[in-house]
Write a structure and sequence with these properties.
The protein is of the alpha/beta class. It has five domains: 142 residues, Rossmann fold (3-Layer(aba) Sandwich); 228 residues, Rossmann fold (3-Layer(aba) Sandwich), CATH 3.40.50.720; 25 residues, no CATH class; 101 residues, Non-ribosomal Peptide Synthetase Peptidyl Carrier Protein, Chain A; 56 residues. It is 48% helix and 12% strand. The protein has 27 helices and 14 strands. The strands form four sheets. The chain has a seven-stranded parallel β-sheet, sandwiched between helices. 27% of the residues are buried.
C-alpha cells in the first residue's frame, strides 16, 4: 500500500487510500494520499462513490478479504482494473459474482513469489527498473520497524496485531555467528611477536593479570599504562622484572588516560620506538560507592573519568588502525544494576555502548561484563565487599584464569557485550528487584525448570521448625542482621540488636524491602507496619518468632494491657479532634492482640506524626 501510493503519485494519479486506525490514516495522509478512508468499515465504498460523483475509480489495489472485495468491485469504473494482492480468498476459494464484470472490468491475481519462480527474466527487469527509480530519488524506502533476531516471536506478534506501518524487519548483527563453546577454539591462541599490545590499568589487579596472560600468549612488547607509572608507589616491580626476564619488552610510563594529550604522546612513542600497535585492553577503573542521593559530582567524575574518558580517548586515538582486538572491561552489574554503585554501572554501560558503536563502524570491539573476580583486583583487596556481591548473586566468584579463557573465546569468536558471572537465580531474584524484568523471563523460567530457582527457603523453614525456642530466637536475629546488612550496606557484625533501625539509616522504602526479603526467605507475610512497631532487631525478631511458632509464648512484650489502654487514652485526649472514632476503636482493639509487641514505640510514632 505505501509503495503503491508512491508509484501512483509519481504517475500523477489521484489516490484514494484506506487504513485501519487513526494513526495509520494520519501516516497515509502525510505520504500524499488525496483521500483517506477507514478500511475497518465497508462504508468506504459509498464514500468513494460520493467523492467521485458516482463515477468510481480506474484501478483498485486490494488486500482486503470477504465482502470488501465486492464493495471494491462496485467502485470500479467501466474498463477499470482490479489488482488483488491478498491470497486468503484464493486459498479459501471465495466466490465472487460476475455481475460487476459486465462493465468490461479486469481482475488480476498477483503473487510476486510466482513471478520470481515462473518469470525470472521479467522479475529481473522489474527489479532493475525499480532500483533505477530509487537511484533517481523518484521512490524512497518504506518505513519499517526492526526487531533483533532473538525477538522474532515479538515481531510476529506485532505483525499479527496489525500494529505496523510499513515493513516488519528481523535483523541480524553484522557479525552474527552461533555462540562459541569452550571447545570452539582448538588451536592455541597466539599473539604476534612483531606487535605491541596496550593495557590501561595494566600495573595492578586484573589489568596486570591480563598483561601477564598476553605475554603468555606470545606478546613480546607490552605498554602498561597507569597514572603513576612503574616508578610510582605500589608499582609491581617483581612482576615487571619477571616479564622482562621472559624476554618481553615492557614500557610503563605514567599516563592518565583521561588526558587525551598524554595518551597521544604514548601512542607517538609506540609508533617511534616499538612495533606497531595491534591490540588494546582497557581495564582502568576506579570504584567510589555511594547512594545516588548522596553522591557528589566529584565522586561521579572520579568513577566515570577513567572508564568513559579513557575509552573514548583510546577509541579516537586508534581509529583506523588495523587492530586485532579492542577490549573493554565492563561489569556484570550492568545486567541487573547494583545498589550503591550507580556511577560505576553508568560508566560500564557507556563502554558497552561504545563497543556497539565501534562494531557498527566496522571496527573491532569486545566488551565483557565480569562478575566478581576473587583472586586479583579490587575484590581481592576488599573481602567484605566481595562477600556482599557474592551473597547478592548466590553463586561463586570467578577466577582470573577462568575469565581470561572466556575472553579468548569471545575475541576468537568475534563476540561482544557478554556478561560472565556465576549466579543462583533464586538468590539474585530475591536480592535485586531488577531480576524480575521481562527480559530475564526466559532465564528465570529455565532456572526454575532446572531446579535452580529455589534458594533454599524451604530447607531454611524446615531447619527453623526443628529448633528449640531459644535457638530459634537466635537464628531469627542472625537472619535479620544479615538481611538488614544487605539493605543498609553494612557489615552484619556492626548492626546492634537493640539499636533502632531508623537510627542506623533505615527508611520506609527500606522497610518494604526488608518485609519483602523476609517473605521470600521465611515465607511469612508481615505487614509493613511491623517495622514501625518493632524498630529494633530484638523486638522485630520476637514478632517473627511468634509468627513462626504460634504455640510458643513470646517473651518480652513491652507493654501490658493497662499500659496500652493508657497510651490509647493519651492519643485520644491529645488528638481526638482529628482522629476518626472508628479508627481509634480499631486501634485500641489491635493493641490487645499478641502481634502488638511494641505498642509503646508505635503509639509514640503515631503521636509524633500527629504533632507534625
Amino acid at each position: 500500500g505505501l509503495a503503491a501510493i508512491q508509484i501512483a503519485k509519481m504517475l500523477g494519479a489521484e489516490v484514494f487510500a484506506t487504513a485501519g486506525s487513526a494513526e495509520k490514516r494520519d501516516c497515509v495522509r502525510m505520504l500524499g494520499a488525496d483521500h483517506v478512508l477507514d478500511s475497518r468499515s465497508l462504508a468506504f465504498a459509498d464514500d468513494i462513490l460520493a467523492i467521485t460523483g458516482g463515477q468510481g475509480v480506474d484501478c483498485v489495489l486490494n488486500s482486503l478479504t470477504g465482502e470488501a472485495i465486492n464493495r471494491n468491485l462496485r467502485v470500479l469504473r467501466p474498463f477499470g482494473r482490479f489488482l488483488e494482492l491478498g491470497k486468503r480468498d484464493f486459498y479459501e476459494n471465495t466466490h465472487v459474482g460476475l455481475r460487476p464484470f459486465r462493465n468490461n472490468i479486469a481482475y488480476f491475481g498477483i503473487d510476486a513469489d510466482q513471478l520470481l519462480i515462473a518469470r525470472p527474466d521479467l522479475a529481473r527487469r522489474v527489479f532493475l527498473e525499480l532500483m533505477s527509480l530509487f537511484g533517481r530519488a523518484l521512490l524512497k524506502p518504506l518505513p519499517y520497524r526492526a526487531f533483533a533476531a532473538d525477538e522474532v516471536v515479538d515481531a510476529f506478534r506485532y505483525m499479527q496485531h496489525s500494529r505496523q506501518i510499513g515493513k516488519v524487519v528481523v535483523t541480524l548483527p553484522p557479525d552474527f555467528a552461533p555462540p562459541v563453546s569452550r571447545v570452539a577454539i582448538r588451536a592455541p591462541w597466539c599473539l604476534r611477536a612483531d606487535a605491541t599490545y596496550l593495557v590501561t590499568g595494566g600495573l595492578s589487579g586484573f589489568g596486570l593479570r591480563t598483561a601477564q596472560w598476553l605475554a603468555g600468549k606470545g606478546a613480546s612488547s607490552l605498554v602498561l599504562l597507569s597514572r603513576r607509572g612503574e616508578d610510582g608507589d605500589g608499582a609491581p616491580q617483581a612482576e615487571l622484572a619477571e616479564l622482562r626476564a621472559a624476554g618481553v619488552r615492557v614500557y610503563a610510563p605514567p599516563c592518565d588516560v583521561t588526558d587525551a594529550a598524554a595518551l597521544a604522546g604514548v601512542l607517538d612513542a609506540i609508533a617511534a620506538d616499538l612495533p606497531p600497535l595491534r591490540g588494546v585492553v582497557h581495564a582502568a577503573m576506579v570504584i567510589d560507592d555511594g547512594l545516588l542521593r548522596t553522591t557528589t559530582p566529584a565522586q561521579w567524575h572520579r568513577v566515570l573519568a577513567p572508564k568513559v574518558l579513557g575509552a573514548l580517548h583510546l577509541d579516537a586515538a586508534t581509529r583506523g588502525l588495523p587492530l586485532d582486538f579492542f577490549v573493554l572491561y565492563s561489569s556484570a552489574t550492568t545486567l541487573f544494576g547494583s545498589p550503591g554503585q550507580g556511577s560505576y554501572v553508568a560508566a560500564n554501560m557507556v563502554l558497552e555502548a561504545l563497543a556497539v558503536d565501534r562494531r557498527a563502524r566496522g571496527e573491532t570491539a569486545t566488551c565483557i561484563g565480569w562478575g566478581p573476580i576473587e583472586d586479583v583486583g579490587f575484590l581481592a583487596r576488599n573481602a567484605e565487599i566481595k562477600e556482599a556481591l557474592v551473597a547478592r548473586m548466590g553463586g561463586q566468584p570467578l577466577r582470573s584464569e577462568e575469565c581470561l579463557g572466556f575472553l579468548e573465546q569471545a575475541i576468537g569468536g568475534g563476540q561482544s557485550n557478554l556478561g560472565i558471572l556465576d549466579l543462583v537465580w533464586g538468590t539474585i531474584g530475591r536480592q535485586l528487584a531488577s531480576a524480575g524484568a521481562p527480559k530475564f523471563s526466559e532465564l528465570a523460567a529455565y532456572a526454575q525448570d532446572a531446579g535452580a530457582g529455589a534458594d533454599g527457603s524451604d530447607d531454611l523453614r524446615r531447619w527453623l521448625d526443628g529448633l528449640e525456642i531459644e535457638a530459634l530466637r537466635a537464628a531469627v536475629v542472625d537472619i535479620l542482621r544479615r538481611e538488614l546488612a544487605e539493605i543498609l550496606r553494612l557489615v552484619p557484625e556492626k548492626i546492634e540488636v537493640t539499636r533502632s533501625l531508623y537510627d542506623m539509616g533505615m527508611d520506609s522504602l527500606m522497610g518494604v524491602e526488608l518485609i519483602t526479603a523476609l517473605d521470600a526467605r521465611l515465607g511469612i507475610a508481615l505487614p509493613v507496619m511491623a517495622v514501625s512497631e518493632g524498630p529494633t532487631i530484638a523486638r522485630l525478631s520476637e514478632r517473627i518468632v511468634h509468627q513462626l511458632r504460634p504455640s510458643a509464648v513470646a517473651e518480652g512484650a513491652v507493654a501490658t494491657t493497662d499500659a496500652r489502654a493508657r497510651q490509647v487514652g493519651q492519643i485520644a485526649e491529645q488528638h481526638g479532634d482529628v482522629l476518626d472514632p472508628t479508627w481509634l476503636a480499631t486501634f485500641s482493639q489491635s493493641m490487645d492482640e499478641p502481634s502488638a509487641l511494641n505498642a509503646g514505640s508505635f503509639t509514640r510514632g503515631v503521636t509524633d506524626d500527629l504533632d507534625k
